[in-house]
């Protein structure tokens, strides 16, 4: 059976190579010194018992791209959008949709974008990643 940590480690390895990403975390960092950064966090999972033995588990994971608004809001928005597009491309490539064989299928759902802070000091894009792993219960 695959675990959250195995999925997140595989995602982290792929996202780390996307252009302009300065850091990738599998936890929410308390202090950040490098922008833009990516945070990969588990959200939930569901299980479906297909037979007396076979199980299908769907994992839901968020991938957040966060940029500090340094020069202009426009530059931060473009950078975040470019990184989100890069993540979509790398995770959607034929060689990566099964994360090296640890999941049976995967998909990305819609991305959302927002400014945070008052006044706005960060701009983020959040992607929801869903994957399915099938296994036999013991």
Distance between the termini: 10 Å
Query: Using DSSP, what is the number of strands?
Result: 5
Poorly predicted ranges: none
- Average per-residue pLDDT, rounded, comes to 91
Helical content (DSSP H or I, runs of 4+): 10-25%
The percent range for strand residues is 35-45%
Radius of gyration, rounded?
16 Å
Strand order of the largest sheet: 1-2-3-5-4
Name the structural class: alpha+beta
Give the biggest sheet: 5 strands, mixed
Tally of helical segments: 2
Shape: elongated
Element pattern in H and E: HEEEHEE
Written overview of the protein:
The structure is a single chain. The protein is an alpha+beta fold and 138 residues long. The protein has helices at 4-15, 73-92; strands at 23-25, 37-49, 54-68, 105-116, 122-136. The radius of gyration is 16 Å and the shape is elongated. A hairpin with a 4-residue loop joins β2 (37-49) and β3. The model has no long low-confidence stretch (mean pLDDT 91). 23% of the residues lie in helices and 42% in strands. A 5-stranded mixed β-sheet has the order 1-2-3-5-4. The chain contains 2 helices and 5 strands; from the N terminus they run αβββαββ.
Layout of strands and helices, then pairs:
Blueprint: H1 4-15, E1 23-25, E2 37-49, E3 54-68, H2 73-92, E4 105-116, E5 122-136
Parallel strand pairs: 1-2
Antiparallel strand pairs: 2-3, 3-5, 4-5
